[in-house]
């Protein structure tokens, strides 16, 4: 087949509404489980991992070490995006998604069985990092496949809406992980939770993965991919992405930098900062994140449905500007020590970024032809997650401890959210210039 064809070789078969909804639900269930696994690590990193796996260092160093193991998962995500993106473009979306789900489930369950530093010494944090790498590797391949199989099944006029279903896995995974941590923390003494209770959410992953597999094995392959597969698979999809579509990769990195950065600040950094620096009750902070995430789900669906009418980039830019305002106030509200103001900060960060997060899946998919779409969308998203999600908590912690203080850290958060809007604008311009968006998808 040609190295970089301008369009899909043959028209995909239209799917029934029932099939589209089934695929969207399968994407939602699978990504929810994957993000549950990913987020429980983040919660454990800010609550128990420092004393359990890094007991021989100072409080600040232990916190940074725990955040570093959290960030390691992001470092592995582009590798997973490359490997599973290649497989997804070569053999199919469905088979790849089953593999990523099993890989994530095994790694998460093993973390729940991992001995601590007190039991095996320095080997404990080493094994923790290895398993976190496996988690990152799996989720690196998950996002692209889940988004694409949902978007590619959807009718052209509703791709932002159905593309948002795998995006809902993030708040739903956040809800599930925070809920179980909250229940466990409330139902047992703090010493018991720190000693062994934190393992329960990790071990529960084994059950959830079985449910996810049952759902995913029942869906059909993307018809767009089947149409491309008939003409032959591209030998090296990533090579074509980097040679012919590198500007789209840069747009993806920019677009997802602020989205993931502010998201993880609200979801994980808030809990760590509130407990370690402000001495606030962990259960109250987890409850705030939980309630905010519950209300975030219908908001993402609403703005994503609207984005099919308003335009993808317009919606994302509006979210970027709104989130930049919240980002400027986020840390001062957090530092107030008031649970009410902290709730406002978390809600503002998560809800203002919903117009960015929901439609970004469809825009990322539009940037590439079907035969290299998995590789291209995955690499851009995962690299953006490193620049944003992985580094935002670390950079914020370091900036707050530096002479730049609150002002410098707040300016950094504002900057990365504005970068997301610019990335969406540039991506939209590329798509329009390439002519790959149908008139039905082009806003008036």
Helix-residue proportion: over 70%
Q: Please tell me how large the radius of gyration is.
A: 21 Å
Shape annotation: globular
Q: Average pLDDT value?
A: 86
Main location: membrane
InterPro entries: MFS, MFS_dom, MFS_trans_sf, Sugar_transporter_CS
Domain Major facilitator superfamily (MFS) profile: 23-435
Membrane topology: Multi-pass membrane protein
Describe this structure in words.
- By secondary structure, the protein is mainly α.
- It is 82% helix and 0% strand.
- It contains 19 helices and no strands.
- It has helices spanning 17-47, 49-53, 59-90, 93-112, 117-120, 123-153, 159-167, 169-187, 190-197, 199-216, 223-229, 237-244, 246-276, 282-310, 312-335, 339-352, 354-366, 373-401, 405-434.
- The longest helix is centred in the first third of the chain and has 32 residues, at 59-90.
- It is globular.
Write the layout of secondary structure elements.
Blueprint: H1 17-47, H2 49-53, H3 59-90, H4 93-112, H5 117-120, H6 123-153, H7 159-167, H8 169-187, H9 190-197, H10 199-216, H11 223-229, H12 237-244, H13 246-276, H14 282-310, H15 312-335, H16 339-352, H17 354-366, H18 373-401, H19 405-434
Helix pairs in contact: 1-3, 1-4, 1-6, 1-7, 1-8, 1-10, 1-13, 3-4, 3-6, 3-18, 4-6, 4-10, 6-7, 6-18, 7-14, 7-17, 8-14, 13-14, 13-15, 13-16, 13-17, 13-18, 13-19, 14-15, 14-16, 14-17, 15-16, 15-17, 15-19, 17-19, 18-19
